[in-house]
Every structure is written in C-alpha cells, then in structure tokens.
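Re-running the complex after MR caught last week's input typo. The corrected sequence lines follow. Everything else is unchanged.
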Amino acid sequence: MTDAREVIARRVAAEIRPGTLVNLGIGLPSLVANYIPADFGVFFQAENGVIGMGARPPEGMQDPDLTDAGGGFITAVPGAAAIDSAMSFGLIRGGHIDVTVLGGLEVDERGRLANWMIPGKMVPGMGGAMDLVTGARRVIVAMTHTNKDRPKIVARTELPLTSARPVDLIVTEMAVLAPTPDGLRLLEVAPGHDAAQVRRATGAALSD
Amino acid sequence: MTDAREVIARRVAAEIRPGTLVNLGIGLPSLVANYIPADFGVFFQAENGVIGMGARPPEGMQDPDLTDAGGGFITAVPGAAAIDSAMSFGLIRGGHIDVTVLGGLEVDERGRLANWMIPGKMVPGMGGAMDLVTGARRVIVAMTHTNKDRPKIVARTELPLTSARPVDLIVTEMAVLAPTPDGLRLLEVAPGHDAAQVRRATGAALSD
Amino acid sequence: MKQAIRATELAALVPDGATVMIGGFMGVGSPERLIDALVTCGRRGLTVIANDSAVPGVGVGKLVTAGAVVRLVASHIGLNPETQARMNAGEIAVELVPQGTLVERIRAAGVGLGGVLTPTGLGTPVEDGKPVIEVEGRRYLLETPLRADVALIAARRADYVGNLEYFLTAQNFNPVMAMAAKLVIAEPEHIVPVGVIPPDAVRTPGALVDHVLGRAT
Amino acid sequence: MKQAIRATELAALVPDGATVMIGGFMGVGSPERLIDALVTCGRRGLTVIANDSAVPGVGVGKLVTAGAVVRLVASHIGLNPETQARMNAGEIAVELVPQGTLVERIRAAGVGLGGVLTPTGLGTPVEDGKPVIEVEGRRYLLETPLRADVALIAARRADYVGNLEYFLTAQNFNPVMAMAAKLVIAEPEHIVPVGVIPPDAVRTPGALVDHVLGRAT
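Corrected-run output:
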C-alpha cells in the first residue's frame, strides 16, 4: 500500500509548473521536491535565505552555513542566490513566490488554514507561515485528510487562523479540494477512495 | 584674499571627528573633504551608493560605474562598501550618518533650512536633502552669508522648507551660528569680520 | 533559463501609456539600450518612475527629449533643463519625491507592504494632502507604494537564469525596482554561464527577471 | 579601524536587563562565542529579539537554558522544549511575531521608518490590539519598530574597519539587526585586511559596527 504522504506529495507535484519559484514547508510539503523533474527549471526557496535549495548533501560535505528552514543541511543548485531575511520575506509578501505548499492542522469551510498553534497545548509559533499564506500567489495545503479519524477539514475551526486569506487548493491522500465563494468544492477523489468516503471523513459540506 | 568657500570649508572640517561617517552635499560642501586629514578614518558617503568615496580618479582611470551624487567620477578608498539606494537612505534616515554638510538658499530664525526650490524660478527637486536633514545625527549648513548682499539667514523664509527639523550649525565665511530654542546664537565671528558686520548681514536676531 | 530578447522586441512589451520604472542615478546604472529602443519605436504617453532625468542625451533624458514622457516621478530634475522646460510648458507632469521616500515607496510595492511611514517631508510641501500617522508619540507621513507595469534594469552581469549582479554605484535603484513591476527586463553588460555569479553575489534573483536583453549584435 | 574586543569584555557592554538582538536562524549564523560569554558572565533579565530560540545548547537556546532571558520576541520556539516549558511556567514572556513582520519591524527601526504596514496577521490573533490602517482600499496592520540596546551579529568575515560579509543561509537576520541597535558587536569567523572584502561583497558597512570580537586565543 502506498504511503499517504507519498500520494499527497505526488499529487501536489502535479500542480507545479516549469520555471516557477516554489516554497515548500517543512515535513510533508518538503517531499514534493522529490517528484519535480530536474529539468523543470523550478527554483525552491528556503525562507531562511536561499533560492535554489537542492537535495541533501553527500555525507561529510555538509556546510553548517547552508541549511533549510528546519535547520537541516541542504545543497544549493547551480544558479542559486543567497538572500537575507528581509529580501526573503520581501519575495514572499510581495507576491513573488508562485506557489507555497504548507502543512495544516485544520482548514475551515471558507478554505482558511490553521497551522501554527493549538491553544493550551502546542505553541510553536507561526514562523514564516502567516507571510507565506498571505503573500504567495498560490497556496496549497498538503495534509492528511484526518487526524486519528477526526476530520481536519471542518465547518468552523476553533484554532487560531494562519491568515484570513483562503488557500487555493487542499490536497490530501483522499481528495483534492478547492475553496470557492460558495464553500469547498470536491475536485478529485484519489484512486482507492470514493466520494461518499471523502464526505464522511470531512467535517464541512463539499460541493461537486 | 582667501576665497569665502575655502574659509567655510576649512571651518566646517574642524567640526568633523575622527572615525565618523559623513555625507557632503555637492558644490561647496564637497570641498570640506579637502581639509580632513587622511589618517582621520572618516568615511564619506555618496548617497547614490558608496561609503568610502575618495578623491577624483587619475585621468583615464575613471570608471563610469563609480560616481558621486552629482554624477562626477570618484574613487573608492580601501574599506569602501557599495550599497543600493534603499540601504543608502536607510543609513541616512536611520540616524547612521554622523554628520551631513549641505548648502543652503536660506535658513530661518528657528534654524530651519530651505535649499531645494525657489517657487516660480528653480525647481530642481529635493534629491536626498530632505532625508539628510531629517535623519542625519548632525546637520551643518555651509553657505555664503549673503547672496548679492541679501541676507540668507532670515527671520522667516518664503521658500519651502527642506525639513521641519532645525539644523545644528550654520557656517558662513563671516560667522558660525547655532539654532537654539531661543533663536539663533552667534558662536564665532570669522577673522577679518566683527559682530556688528555679521548682524548687519543677517536678517534675523542673533544672541551671543 | 531565460530567453534573451532583442532591443526590437521591447516595443511589444512596453505599450504607449505604460508606467515604467527605470534604474539609474544621473545616467549611471541606466539601461541605455532599452531606453534607446523605446525612443526608436516612438513610445508616447509614458509615466516614468526614476531617481532623476539625468541630462539631455543620457538615460531618462533621452525619453524626455523624445517627448515620450507625460508624467515623471523623480527626486531630482535640476540637471536637465529640458525636463524643466517641458514641465513649465505643461507637457510633463512632475511629481517630486524625496529620494529616500522614493526608494522606500518602490520597495513597499515590491515587498508587499501597504505604505511607508517616514518623518521625511513633514512640515514641507511634501506633506500636502497626505495622511499623518502618529506612532509611539512621533508623527510620520504615510506615503503610498509605487508600482509599475515594467521595470527596466541595468546590471553588470546576468547569468542564463537571470540572476543579476551590480557594480559599485551603478546599483542604486535597480535591485529595488526589479521587485516592484509586473514585467522586469534586465540589460546586463555581460551574460555569463550559470555558476559564474556565486550565490552570495546575486543581488536580484533570476526569479524576479522576466527577460534579459541579449548582447548587441 | 576597530579595536578587537575579547569575549570577556562583553559583560561590560551588555548589562543585566538589556534588550539584545541576536542574529541566526535555528542556530545557523548565530554568534556562538558572544552568546557563550553572556552565559559565562551570568547575565540576567535580558530581552532577546531573535528569529527563534534554536534547540537547547545551540544559539539563543543556551541563554534560555541559563535562565538569562525574561522576554523573547521571536517567530518560532517550537523546536526548543525548554523555551516552551519556561513560557508555560511564566519565567519567559514570549511575543510571537510572524517572521516577515519581525524582520521588517527590525528594519523599520534601523532605517528610521515609523512602523510597518503589513497584511500579514490580519484576521488572526496577531491583529489583537493593533491599529488597522486602510491604504488605497486595502487594510494593513500597523506594526511598530523593534529596537535594541545591543545587536550580536555573526559574520563570515570582517575586515579591520568592520565591514562584514556573510555566507549563504548564515546571513538571515544579521544584516538587518546590525542597523537597529545602539551598539553593534560582530563575531566574524575570519578577520581580514582592508581590501580583502571587495566593496560589492560588503553587506554590513563597517560604519554600523562598533566592536569586532577578536579571534579565539
């Protein structure tokens, strides 16, 4: 059986156009890079300061001054650019990032993402997520459809929002959904699932 | 007889402390650099994008990509830094310039400078002057005391101000004056002049 | 990888009436070949955002002389008597902006900020008609972002993916303008293979650049 | 020309209760020797402004563990459980700031702007208690500038006049913080003669730097 994370990452990768500038969140979203062809001319931004992030470096070749936004060692592809935090978030907030892919705790029926804290439980901080959701041209949420069988796509979320701006696409291992002014639309059902299953696993109304 | 401009430039130079960052306006203020000892460790900013502006380059050695704010060829001293306009004016407005020396059309009794336009006659634009007067730690006006016998230091100016912030010092070929909350103070009379002469050539009250 | 364009292709990219940012300071760091191309194709009705209008025959000055400019947003026009004359004749509307405010207004547009809160211009004619906002007991002018349809950028070197490197005082407004326009066209002195410009020397990442002007043939 | 200082001199420059900006991102580009010096001299009551608190034993994490920090302004503390524990115990007051807002608030202080007008945080808890300003029909949060008494800056190289050069992702908050503090202390990996860092490679001009930490002896 295919891993849910792989299914999600592969499907998100199909959304990435050649020659674009893409920011992948840490964790599941970072797997998307594995499914983008090398000749696509896609540049990945790590918001801590590089455009043109590459894969993990060979053992022993790591540079402590070249890491991703999670602090992990990376490489830089030919044509990479090193930037400071002001420039990095200038690109993000200024609409220069074509696509950002972020993980999610919950998404509400209006397509608004919550992914940075669970009051009373987990307060990691928003890092760059609020700027990314507010500023990137296209925001894709990549997350499992449920958390221990509890829907993560809900009518209303009790969690603090990451941004008032609705995301553009939600990709789970079960489905692809898009927020619209009339609510969430079910665009695709993943192979091995059916629409009824998706609806049962979802806490918000889905139109076709 | 010594040239008035030289008298002014020499006197202003005595105000420059070692190790400081200094912005000199074009024209008369730029002459101040001639009287700063080379071992003073003073760096001159040209607001078009260099810290560490040096003297004119040798004939034939000019680089068209290295000029001062007037567009004239310059050199860069060892330890110079090239910066963009955002950084350059970030330094200016952010209070990182220790001293700026600017020319003036008129200064009023509160010490406010007008130096960027004469309505109906000359509208060159303010360039960087408004930011410099607003943001530099210390603002020195270097100008001739009169213009064709008409006082340039006046009770009230009809000219549009460069900044609401009073300057810190006014140096002319006749005197050195400082704005205070109680009006202009006559700090020094230049050799070859006397206080009565200075007062006659000044359109505002001067305290001692 | 960018496609190199020819100067003759510029006409199709910059229509009459466009708002165009042009890098440079008194002609230093100005995209002269791109400017020449706009003159050659007879562009009219341009709004130009630039630090200054240089002198006649140089940089933005060529567009002024050609009658291509109807509106100019700049910090200084004093060294170009033609700009002054056309302004006085009502042919060019000039908005004078303090230089530090000009670059921050452009930056604000480029980095997605809603405006600039600056003390510069308070108590001067620059304040007229603008909101004044008090923050922590101090007053600031609220200046709005400046955006453009096209930015014409001069660089020392570009690589094949459009990364740009600048040199000494030719940098000036170029990197900031490269963030604030819908379409960014770079005119480099040299075009080099990817990797020749090291990551830390890139001041404008290629992702911001739409077209690179090819070398003169 | 700057005087090189020793780590032991830091105690006299950073008093208890000071507000300290510290460069770095998850410990990358952090001034580790300066941080160690603050721990060694037993500093207390610091307000730290930094992107994050790294992990225990690294960067700002060392100051958290040492109990030196009473207030932390940061965008992320999720990878340091000690910060979370001390926050929950009421020992550290944490102000969480979106990363892009954090860097712009620091920049605003450094470049003399009155604040930041950003869309980031609207409609979230970040908006609480803050003025919302409408510009050209769009709403923005007004965020205030962040200043510090001291900035501790990590750089790849410094020259004798204090010019700083950074390397790859170790740049992050360092150049912006070097503009926003009354006192700026740089910890370079290497100190080189004037001229070794060319003008176009300087990201922090020496005029901004008060002290350079000498090499470890």
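None of the earlier attempt is carried over here. Chains B and A do not touch (no CB pair under 8 Å). The radius of gyration of chain B is 17 Å.
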